[in-house]
Predict the 3D structure of the following.
Amino acid sequence: MPIQLNKALVGREFAPFVVTIERGKIKEFARALGDANPLYLDDRVGQASEWGDIIAPPTFMTTFREAGGDNADFLRELGTDISRLLHGEQEFELHRPLKPGDTLLCRSRLLDIYEKTGRSGPLGMVVRETVASDKTGELVGTMRHITVVRL
Amino acid sequence: MKYGRVYADDVKVGDELPVLEKGPIQQIQLTRYAGASGDFNPIHQDHEFAKTAGMGDVFAHGMLSMGFVGQCVTDWAGPGAVRKLGVRFAAIVRLKDTVTCRGRVLAKSSKDDTHLVELEIWAENQRGEKVVTGKATVALPSRES
């Protein structure tokens, strides 16, 4: 019997959380990707750039995982556990590059849960979104992702 | 032409981005990526856990491959140029796999002073199988501005 995901979670808004982007975290993330772009790693190159500081790689928002992430409580409520998860799809929309010192208010929502049949059997698709805005309320970035649950 | 500046004027539909070769994937890179990203799912670190979960062995975070594809775009367009980056994870990347990232210009548009270029982006393993497919939109400067 395949497991059943808790579809009552569709529409859930997770507790808003604040992220302050750290200089060292940007560099650690770029190095982990093996990306030596000086705009990520060299403060002087960043200061001389049009952004006035180093900036973060375009996938950096994936580090914003305080709420609505794959923590044990959420996965239990969803009806699964971490060993069944795969990453299906991921999208970032960026209105400007992220920089050290940016303080962003992040709101995550669970948009949809649906099923499909994959090569290896039934799959549950869990669609989530996180929207980040700055202190002035301006939208900075949106990340949408589909987590695949092997049912 | 690494980290070169690309102008919208010089880009044509069908142009291909310089190919970016990443890997072979090693366990230490998955460990570093876990720490940097905060994704500590043991399925990327612990052989026994991955085996018990029915995955055979550990495999790379999808987001690591997406980061590689992102680098293919930013090496060409510049890191601040990316407005949109979206992918589907088509196949699992395993230890010792290589990830070859490619891109191609699909469309160009200009509105006021904003020049957008839409790209098809993808990554293949050493057997030529697509592991990531997607699209990106970058904003490029014009030679006139």
Summary: Chain A has a mean pLDDT of 95. Chain A touches chain B at residues 25, 28-29, 31-35, 37-40, 49-51, 55, 57-59, 62-63, 65, 70, 82-95, 97, 144, 150 (CB under 8 Å).
